[in-house]
Amino acid sequence: MSIMFELRDVKKIYDGKTVLRIDELKLEAGKINAIIGPSGAGKSTLLQLLNGLEGSSEGAISFDGEKYTKGKKIPLNERRKMAMVFQKPTLFNSSVYENIAYPLKLRRIPTKTISQKVNEVLELVGLRDKARQGALTLSGGEAQRISVARAIVTHPKALLLDEPTANLDPANVELIERIIKHANSAHGATVVIVTHNMFQAKRLGDNIVFLLNGQIVESGPSDIIFSDPKNEKTSAFIRGEMVC
Amino acid sequence: MDYFLNAFVKAIELLVSFDEELYGIIFLSLKVSASAIAVSSMIAVPLGIGISMGRFWGKKLLVSIINASMSIPPVVVGLVVYIILSNKTGIFHTLRLLFTPTAMIIAQTLLALPIITGLTIVAVKSVHSRISKTAISLGASYTQLVLLVIKEARYAIGSAIITAFGRLMAEVGAVMMVGGNIRYKTRVMTTAIALQKGMGEFELALALGIILLTMAFIVNILLDYFRDEKEVPRT
Ligand SMILES: Nc1ncnc2c1ncn2[C@@H]1O[C@H](COP(=O)(O)OP(=O)(O)O)[C@@H](O)[C@H]1O
Ligand SMILES: [Mg+2]
Q1: From the CA of B152, how many Å to the nearest CA of chain A?
Q2: Domain span including residue B123
Q3: Nearest to A132 among B131, B138, B234 (CB)
Q4: How many separate domains does chain B show?
Q5: pLDDT tens-digit map of B94-104
Q6: Total domains in the fold of chain A
Q7: In which domain, by residue range, is A185 found?
Q8: Considering only CB atoms, which chain B residues are within 8 Å of A93?
Q9: H/E stretch holding B182
Q10: C-beta atoms of A83 and B139 within 8 A
């Protein structure tokens, strides 16, 4: 088993409050890793640490074999192996096409290749006919599909998603889940998806990490976590009960 | 009422007959304010972007000072420029700028600087907080992020410039102090209205009032356009 992300003795402190404390966490390469847990558990914080958007207060995070300790920034070329999708789609004030082309332009990809790649993902997310439309005029579901398309257009090694379907209708949820699976199976992207939806974690996750109060309660292969949780709190959370 | 109506009809007559003095005044107003906007934008837009995106000691204080300067009364700016230009020992005196359109442009430039800078800072800040994490997570370098923020803030920066232009066109204190409302030379729309004397000038003033009102409407329509800007041109 090869590892895409590894955390050791990682702490994240905001205003003197420790919001994340992870002794050890390994996220398997080429798999879909689902991070579950109630609101405020530190899921988004964890994802931002993985992406390098936030630095850890203590400890070491490895990405794709490179180790980053506190204060050491992930270099641009390493950072560009990842892409992230946020809960609220943030599109730029330009056309749908331009939005998806953006990460490719950043990497100075030739225009012809860009057009081919953009059209490919537009097809995949079912929005080929919206290419010329202003991105800020899209509906919520369409906007999130474009966010995902924009993230996967570079075929990132690691795709990080922070509750990407939290506010969407079932049809869009299904579409986006299909795209995530496609990125994983067709391009071998390592997926880390944060969700508070148990069913989604079950549908997508090869591995599950259960986070509570900034700490990992339990983690492991999806079938084991869901059928035979070791921890009382995990089973309660899986049953849909309130845990804290 | 008749009196007013008569004046109004005469004002319209002046407008449609392209009265030379009237249009000279309108043209000078536009020239002075547009020049001031051009100069101040070239300084204030980059300055606002730099201040907004930069991290430096005293930033908060500087932003407060700029915000406070946005509401300096024009007549005070006019007074300061007047004092500087009329100082017999200063180098500005030898340039003989007082009571010239150039002096008016200088005063209005100073007036517009904090307005455009302040509004640009706000515009860039809101765009930056909206898109920075997304852009970085998609692989933007710092320079690429800065360029994107500027591009995304373009309509808000445009409306900052138009807001300042509207303020300058309506301003009377500064141009009065340093221009002196000299007929055929430094008389602009607002000073002509403010200092109208006698019947002849009253009609002219009313005609100018109509123009000013129309321009205020246009400025506001432009601002609305920028605020609603969601449609994007084809790529
Ligand atoms: N930038 C921040 N500053 C201060 N506290 C923060 C910040 N970001 C997150 N937190 C705190 O960290 C905790 C975990 O937040 P988050 O990672 O967003 O949780 P989740 O995504 O699981 O809902 C919360 O208590 C939140 O208030
Ligand atoms: Mg969250």
Answers
A1: 6
A2: 2-231
A3: B234
A4: 1
A5: 788 999 999 99
A6: 1
A7: 3-238
A8: 152, 155, 229-230, 232
A9: none
A10: yes
